[in-house]
Amino acid sequence: MExxxxxxxxxxxxxxxxxxxxxxxxxSELWEIFMKETxxxxxxxxxxxxxxxxxxxxxKEGNFEYIACVPAxxxxxxxxxxxxxxxxxxxxxxxxxxxSLETLHDTFDFIYNKYLPNSxxxxxxxxxxxxxxxxxxxxxxxxxxxxxxxxVK
Length: 153
Hints:
Multidrug-efflux Transporter 1 Regulator Bmrr, Chain A; 18% helix; alpha+beta; Reg_factor_effector_dom_sf
């Protein structure tokens, strides 16, 4: 799996936040709650041409911030149970995951434990890394694709 290199312009996103280790599938649950909340605001999945799973830096205990979100343009005001994040323009390595949720961990393992330690790239660990979902995403079915953006210097 060879990544491509892109420079992504700055963007703003609004979503729901989780902090922890995702030991019990809390991130999947967060997405379900987030989609129900946006539906209650009159938006359904067809409203969003793209979604993001923002991942903040991991602490020494293995906890990290994760925000299930969509572009901020969909919101006139931010609901009380949501947060807004501004992601600056950055250069990224972009890896594509194809297939199931069960194999997503394998893709992350490859990226962070096999590819990056042996690459020439210096990762920005203090910046948001993120999953990018667009029309290629098909609910983690066999043909489903999503991109993983890793910020690099």
